[in-house]
Amino acid sequence: MSQDNLIDFGAERAKRIHDIKDKRLDEMRQAFEQAMPLAKSKKKKSKSKPKKR
Question: What's the pTM?
Fold first, then answer.
């Protein structure tokens, strides 16, 4: 029965660290979006080769 309740502390710590870093990344993304908003779905001009004469 004691084997069912084993906890892998390394894995649990890794999950917490990942969640903390993910939260920080989301905060940074929001800050950058406020500072430099992305262009709203503008179509890029396709670069075509100049015509040979």
Answer: 0.50
